[in-house]
TrEMBL record:
This is UvrABC system protein A. PANTHER family: DRUG RESISTANCE ABC TRANSPORTER, UVRABC SYSTEM PROTEIN A. One of its GO terms (cellular component) is cytoplasm. It is found in: Cytoplasm. It comes from Streptomyces parvus. It holds the Pfam family ABC_tran.
Length: 796
């Protein structure tokens, strides 16, 4: 008999292969309510849920934050001292984490010397390229850098070696920074006619600067009684010496009525008192004055290139580094492809790869010299993605915050392909997203809710897309929502005329934007929408612009302070209790002395992460104990600030415990823009981009302006909230306002009275009006990319 052969048993699974899940147990960060969840690794997981349901708290503040904290702990204590300190998230167990790379929507730094090229590695590689191949040769890579000034120094140095001897030494460094504008590309000029009326004398009140009255001793009297100027002579008749002293004199001590004060020229004084301050933090009338008085012009010496003449003179194939940086990136990629120089082959290959990544991600229309502060949130996020596309790293967790923001439906497909490519390389991809097209590619879906704020923070569904569609969650019910074209559209009451618009890539555009209706400006990313609206609408048209730029403010600022809501509340508390209003401000007299009104105590543990813990004296309420004895409608001030907008609306309403019309009006507007779930005392630093924009919109709804310009107001909005936004836009128009919306969301397009479509492409392929008319005409026409996608969306 032949010997019986045994069937080979499959090998036992290796212990290392059992870690296929990221396990989260008992997460309580922000509004999360003991969330426990298991996420598959090397898959694409999308997190959905209404705004404020806890998506970011779970993904960014728990999973990504703990991963980054653990990585930082692997560095030496000395290095950790230079890193931002992070406390451990409020969670019981976090298991199976991998290195997290966060690609968020935070705008890039708005430093005037920061550009797309410096924010990526492209500029650094171009500088090396020109220092090697540029003719004439002018120096090392620093000679082409607009952040490096030229330096020359000479002096004596003593060398302490054997017999000490003194030697003369000279040192020089060639930099590329234009000395006139210091690498900024523009120079600021103060319009003197906005500072004073030169037909009057100082004694007659020549100054037209806000707050500079003719009898204010601390400013005007110094000029009048300094002894340098004749106060009774019209400024136009000042001698050359008097004019020099009046405008530019260095700080000098003078005696005025027995007091020693400092006299300083008007220009440096204005620069210190107005121009060195943050424009956003100024009072409206001061900001208006600064906008009038200061003009920014292209630097005449470098013609806006930021570079010295030497850096601009060195060329490769008749192209200087300034020319290369001003090209659209897709054209620059073609130019680099045509360079054949074996001596720098590895450098050319790396540069080519970086530039091709820009094109592939849909940013080929940008130029490397574009200031990074002018990028939208979506563009900034995609620029950050570039360095990861060609990365050889695998088994990494990539965390994205609404990567489809600012993308036309046509571009969303390309973004989806990139996310799938990252996953297919063996990475875990976690995406917070609202758009159905992006949710559709998920391997795993986690839906948080059911509501926002305190009504959210639980996992309502976990599973596949089909399972979500069949579930009875808010997201599941609205996933297949489609807005329909309106049967009747409003008739315009006038038009905002734009003629010969050439800002950025606009190609001599003439267009009439109808007034008194809801107008949507659309087109692919980079087609010129923002240039048309923000760069070309004539000034003084009573326009209120509401964008997504960050709200300036610390963790002490909250919706109550930002909207001015706290003012009537403090006065009502003061009146009801017969005390000062300042007692009811945690930033003033009412602050808890232990934590100075912050509500938390920060303990610095040296090389370890600093720890924040609720203040034991005020228990995180931020106020002195004596202040909490005063009540209004049965509540103390800390209880009022802990209320959500919806609760407070009821509390201060005409039938509430403390009727207060001034507060109720502001709360109505906050609820109108869909922020009913925010608590009045929630720090502004915790708000998302979409929440910030809606908070600004709520504050501006009381303004007198007739034209509202909104920049993608659907950002961060759940499908269910878009309907509420459309209702709000309708109410604004019906109240007599004109609303202009830059938007890619098809529901808003379908709801519009008038659509202006820019394109046909991005960059120099865009900048033209490819369609203007009603949404129904656009769908019937189908002549543009937007028309095709909108027709598909409404099912025509």
């Amino acid at each position: 008999m032949a010997p019986r052969t045994k069937t080979p048993q499959p090998p036992a699974p290796h212990a290392a292969d059992s870690h296929d899940l990221i396990r989260v147990h008992g997460a309580r960060e922000n509004n999360l309510k003991d969330v426990s969840i298991e996420l598959p690794k090397r898959r694409l997981t999308v997190f959905t849920g209404v705004s404020g349901s806890g998506k970011s708290s779970l993904v960014f503040a728990t999973i990504a934050a703990e991963s980054q904290r653990l990585i930082n702990e692997t560095y030496p204590a000395f290095v950790q001292g230079f890193m931002p300190t992070q406390a451990r998230p409020d969670v019981d167990v976090l298991d199976g984490l991998t290195t997290a790379i966060i690609v968020d929507q935070q705008r890039m730094g708005s430093d005037p010397r920061s550009t797309v090229g410096t924010a990526t590695d492209a500029n650094a590689m171009l500088r090396i390229l020109f220092s090697r191949l540029g003719k004439p040769h002018i120096g090392p890579p620093g000679a082409f850098a607009f952040n490096v000034p030229s330096v020359t120094a000479s002096g004596a140095i003593t060398v302490e070696r054997g017999n000490k001897k003194t030697e003369k030494a000279t040192f020089s460094r060639t930099g590329g920074m234009c000395p006139r504008c210091e690498g900024r590309g523009s120079v600021s000029d103060i319009d003197l006619t906005q500072l004073y009326d030169d037909s009057k004398s100082i004694a007659e009140g020549a100054f037209t600067i806000p707050g500079w009255k003719s009898d204010s001793w601390w400013t005007v009297r110094i000029y009048a009684e300094s002894g340098f100027l004749d106060p009774n002579k019209p400024i136009a008749k000042f001698t050359k010496r008097e004019m020099q002293d009046f405008l530019y004199k260095e700080p000098t001590k003078v005696k005025v009525e027995g007091s020693t004060l400092t006299f300083e020229g008007l220009i440096p004084k204005i620069q210190k008192s107005f121009l060195s301050k943050d424009r956003e933090a100024m009072q409206p009338h001061i900001r208006e004055f600064v906008d009038r008085a200061v003009t920014f012009a292209t630097c005449p010496e470098c013609e806006g290139t930021r570079l010295t003449e030497g850096a601009r003179s060195s060329k490769i194939k008749k192209i200087s580094i300034a020319d290369a940086c001003s090209m659209e990136i897709r054209d620059l990629a073609e130019w680099v492809r045509g360079l054949d120089e074996p001596s720098v082959a590895p450098l050319l290959e790396a540069l080519q790869q970086t530039l091709d990544s820009f094109v592939e991600i849909g940013l080929g229309y940008l130029a490397l010299d574009r200031p990074s502060g002018t990028l939208s949130g979506g563009e900034a996020q995609r620029v950050k993605m570039i360095r990861h596309l060609g990365s050889s790293l695998t088994d990494v967790t990539y965390v994205f915050d609404e990567p489809t923001i600012g993308l036309h439906p046509h571009d969303i497909r390309r973004m989806n392909d990139l996310l799938l490519r990252l996953r297919d390389k063996g990475n875990t991809v976690l995406v917070v997203e609202h758009k159905p097209e992006a949710i559709a590619i998920a391997d795993h879906v986690v839906d948080l809710g059911p509501g926002a704020g305190t009504a959210g923070g639980t996992v309502c569904f976990e599973g596949t897309l089909e399972g979500l569609r069949a579930s009875d969650t808010v997201t599941g019910r609205h996933l297949d929502d489609r807005a329909v074209l309106k049967d009747e559209i409003r008739k315009p009451t006038g038009a905002l005329e734009i003629r010969g618009a050439t800002a950025h890539n606009l190609q001599d555009v003439d267009v009439d934007i109808p007034l008194g209706v809801l107008t949507v400006i659309t087109g692919v990313a980079g087609s010129g929408k923002s240039s048309l609206v923000h760069g070309s609408i004539p000034a003084g048209e009573n326009v209120i612009s509401v964008d997504q730029s960050p709200i300036k403010g610390s963790r002490r600022s909250n919706p109550a302070t930002y909207t001015g809501l706290l003012e009537p509340i403090r006065k009502a508390f003061a009146k009801a209790n017969g005390v000062k209003p300042a007692l009811f401000s945690a930033n003033s007299e009412g602050a808890c002395p232990t934590c100075n009104g912050a509500g938390v105590i920060f303990t610095d543990l040296g090389m370890m992460a600093s720890v924040s813990s609720p203040c034991e004296d005020c228990e995180g309420k931020r106020f002195q104990a004596s202040v909490l004895d005063y009540h209004l409608g049965g509540r103390d001030i800390s209880e009022v600030l802990a209320m959500s907008v919806t609760e407070a609306e009821e509390f201060f309403g005409s039938s509430g415990e403390a009727p207060l019309p001034a507060a109720h009006k502001i709360l109505d507007r906050l609820a109108d823009v869909g922020l009913g779930y925010l608590s009045l005392g929630q720090p502004l630093t915790t708000l998302s981009g979409g929440e910030r924009q809606r908070l600004k919109l709520a504050t501006h709804m009381a303004d007198k302006g007739g034209v509202y310009v909104l920049d993608e107001p659907t950002t961060g909005l759940h499908l269910a909230d878009v309907e509420q936004l459309l209702g709000l836009l309708d109410r604004l128009v019906d109240s007599g306002k004109s609303v202009i919306v830059i938007e890619h969301h098809q529901a808003v397009m379908a709801h519009a009275d008038w659509i202006i479509d820019l394109g046909p492409g991005a960059g120099h392929d865009g900048g033209k009006i490819v369609f203007e008319g009603t949404p129904a005409e656009l769908v019937a026409d189908r002549s543009t990319l937007t028309g095709e996608h909108l027709a598909e969306y409404v099912g025509e």
